[in-house]
Design a protein that fits this description.
The protein is α/β, with parallel strands linked by helices. The protein has a single domain (8-484), classed as TIM Barrel (Alpha-Beta Barrel). The chain is built from 14 helices and 20 strands. It has helices at residues 15-18, 72-84, 97-100, 111-126, 142-148, 155-170, 191-194, 215-239, 263-286, 292-300, 308-316, 367-381, 407-426, 474-484, and strands at 8-12, 45-48, 53-56, 90-94, 130-136, 177-182, 244-250, 256-258, 321-325, 330-332, 339-341, 344-346, 355-356, 364-365, 385-389, 394-395, 430-436, 451-452, 456-458, 470-472. Helix 6 (155-170) runs parallel beside helix 8 (215-239) and helix 8 packs across helix 11 (308-316). The N and C termini lie close together (11 Å).
Length: 490
C-alpha cells in the first residue's frame, strides 16, 4: 500500500453537533441552535416590530437536538479514549465561536470557553492524537446574524480577526492543523448557515417576515469571506510559523460527471464544478479570483469589487493545504435540474453505480469518485490534500443482543480507502483520512439522531430521549484493523 508512515488516520465531528451545553459557561446561541437541520427554511427567529430587530423564537413543537446533542461537552474525555482505541492519531473538531466570544463582537474573550478547548486539545495530545481544528463549522454567533446580517457586513472581518488571533495565541503549540470555514462553498445553497447571511427586514414590507436574502447579500459575503480567509492565514503564520492553515470545502461536486458525451453536458458539468467548488477554491489555494465570475456577476446584476490591497492580500496569503469532504458523485444532464443537499450536487441517476446505501436518505455510493476528486484537486492546486469528511449515515438500532452489525459501513470504508490508496499511487499527496463522524452525533442535514455515521453508537433518538450510553459497532473493530495495517485492505 502507498500510505505514508505519518499518514493521519482519524475521525471528524463538529462542536454544534456533538457538544450540547448550548448555553453553558457563558456560551450564547449560534445559527445552528435555531435550526432543525441546516437546510431548514423555518429558522427559530422572528422580527420584533417594537425593537426593529430580530430575536430568537424557538418553536416549542420542535426538538432542537443540538442543544444537548450527545453531551460531548461533559463526555469528551471518555469519547476521545474510545477514538484512541481504534488507533486514531488525529481528530478533527471545531471551536464554537460563541464559546469564545459569546455574541461575536465582544472586546474580551470568555475564559471558560478558552479553558474548555484547551483541556480538550491537551487531552488529544495526551492520547497522541493530532488536533485538526475548524475555526467556523456552521457556528456563526446568532447575534452577528440578527444584528449585522452575517458575513454580508464587512464589520465581521474585524470580529473574526479578534477571534482567530485569540485562539491562535491561546493554543499555540497545542494545535498545528487549522481549517478556516467549513464547507463555505455552500454559501449559495444554504446562505444562513454557511455564511450567516440574513437580509435585515424591510419594515415597509409586511410580506417579508424574516428578510429576503438577495444575490448581492451573498456575493458581499463571498467578498468578505475571501478577505477573512487570507487574514486568517496571515495571522496564523505570524503568531506561529509552525501553523498549517487550510481551507475546507465540500468537494463531492468535483465528481460531477457529464451524463453522456453531449458537449452541452460536458460544458455543464464543468460549470457545475466551477460554481460549486472552484470559485472558493481558486482564491483560497491559488490566490486568484476566477475571471468567469465577471460573467456571473453581470448575469446576476450584482456588483463585487475587490480593492488592490484586498487582491494582494488574497494573492499573498493562500492556504497551506486543501481539506475537503466527499460523500458521493453526481451527473450533469441538461434535461434534468441540478439540485443538492449536504451530500453534494444531485442530477440524473448514474446507471453505472452498483452500490446504494441501505438508508432512507438515498445517497449513491461511488468510491471511485474520491480518487477522481483527489486527482482533480491535486492537479489544480498542487497542495497537500486532507480528507476530513467521508462516511455513510445509516438508520441503526441495537439488536436483541445489544449489538450493531454494520456490514455496509465496513464495505463503504474499505472501498473508499482502496481508492484513496490508488490516488496516492497516482502521485497525489494526501495527508490524512478523517472519517465523518466516528461517534453518532446530530445530523447536520436533517437535525436528527436517526441518521447515524458512527463506529460508536449513542443511545439518543429523534424525540430527544435516550441514556446517552455509548456502544461499539462492528465497524469500530474493522477500522482499527485498517489503521493498524496503515491502510492495507485484503
Amino acid at each position: 500500500m502507498n500510505f505514508p508512515k505519518d499518514f493521519l488516520w482519524g475521525g471528524a465531528i463538529a462542536a454544534n453537533q456533538y457538544e450540547g451545553a448550548w448555553l453553558e459557561d457563558g456560551k450564547q446561541p449560534n445559527v445552528t441552535d435555531v435550526l432543525v437541520g441546516i437546510g431548514s427554511r423555518d429558522p427559530g427567529i422572528k422580527w420584533n416590530e417594537e425593537t426593529k430587530k430580530y430575536e430568537m423564537c424557538l418553536d416549542p413543537e420542535k426538538a432542537y437536538l443540538s442543544h444537548e446533542a450527545v453531551d460531548g461537552y461533559h463526555r469528551y474525555r471518555e469519547d476521545l479514549k474510545l477514538m484512541k482505541g481504534m488507533g486514531f492519531n488525529a481528530f478533527r473538531t471545531s471551536i464554537a465561536w460563541g464559546r469564545i466570544f459569546p455574541n461575536g463582537n465582544e472586546e474580551e474573550p470568555n475564559e471558560a470557553g478558552l479553558a474548555f478547548y484547551e483541556d480538550m486539545f491537551r487531552c488529544m495530545r495526551e492520547l497522541e492524537m493530532e488536533p485538526v481544528i475548524t475555526l467556523s463549522h456552521y457556528e456563526t454567533p446568532l447575534y452577528l446574524i440578527t444584528e449585522y446580517g452575517g458575513w454580508s457586513d464587512p464589520r465581521l472581518i474585524d470580529f473574526w480577526k479578534r477571534y482567530v488571533t485569540t485562539v491562535f495565541k491561546r493554543y499555540k503549540g497545542l494545535v498545528k492543523y487549522w481549517l478556516t470555514f467549513n464547507e463555505v462553498n455552500n454559501a449559495f445553497r444554504i446562505p444562513l448557515v454557511a455564511a450567516g447571511v440574513l437580509t435585515i427586514k424591510d419594515p415597509a414590507d409586511p410580506s417579508d417576515p424574516i428578510g429576503s436574502t438577495t444575490k448581492q447579500d451573498i456575493w458581499d459575503a463571498y467578498h468578505n469571506l475571501l478577505v477573512a480567509n487570507a487574514e486568517t492565514v496571515r495571522i496564523g503564520h505570524e503568531i506561529d510559523p509552525e501553523n498549517k492553515v487550510g481551507c475546507m470545502l465540500t468537494s463531492s461536486s468535483v465528481a460531477t460527471y457529464p451524463y453522456n458525451c453531449d458537449p452541452e453536458n460536458v460544458m455543464g458539468a464543468l460549470e457545475a464544478q466551477r460554481m460549486a467548488n472552484f470559485y472558493f477554491g481558486d482564491p483560497f489555494a491559488l490566490g486568484i479570483i476566477p475571471t468567469y465570475l465577471n460573467k456571473v456577476w453581470k448575469q446576476q446584476g450584482v456588483t463585487v469589487v475587490f480593492t488592490d490591497e484586498e487582491k494582494e492580500l488574497i494573492r499573498k496569503y493562500t492556504v497551506d493545504y486543501f481539506a475537503f469532504s466527499y460523500y458521493r458523485s453526481s451527473t450533469y444532464d441538461r434535461e434534468v435540474a441540478v439540485g443538492g443537499d449536504t451530500g453534494g450536487l444531485t442530477g440524473r441517476e448514474n446507471p453505472y453505480l452498483k452500490d446504494q446505501a441501505p438508508q432512507p436518505w438515498g445517497w449513491p455510493v461511488d468510491p471511485v469518485g474520491i480518487r477522481y476528486t483527489l486527482n482533480v484537486l491535486y492537479d489544480r492546486y498542487h497542495l497537500p490534500l486532507m480528507i476530513v469528511e467521508n462516511g455513510v449515515g445509516l438508520d441503526e438500532n441495537l439488536d436483541e443482543n445489544g449489538e450493531i452489525h454494520d456490514d455496509f459501513r465496513v464495505h463503504y470504508i474499505e472501498e473508499h480507502i482502496k481508492n484513496v490508496n490508488l490516488a496516492l499511487e497516482d502521485g497525489v499527496e494526501c495527508l490524512g483520512y478523517l472519517y465523518w463522524g466516528p461517534i453518532d452525533i446530530v445530523s447536520a442535514g436533517t437535525g436528527e439522531m436517526k441518521k447515524r455515521y458512527g463506529f460508536v453508537y449513542v443511545d439518543r433518538f429523534n424525540d430527544g430521549h435516550g441514556t446517552l450510553e455509548r456502544k461499539i459497532k462492528d465497524s469500530y473493530y474493522r477500522f482499527k484493523e485498517i489503521i493498524a495495517a496503515n491502510g492495507e485492505i485484503e
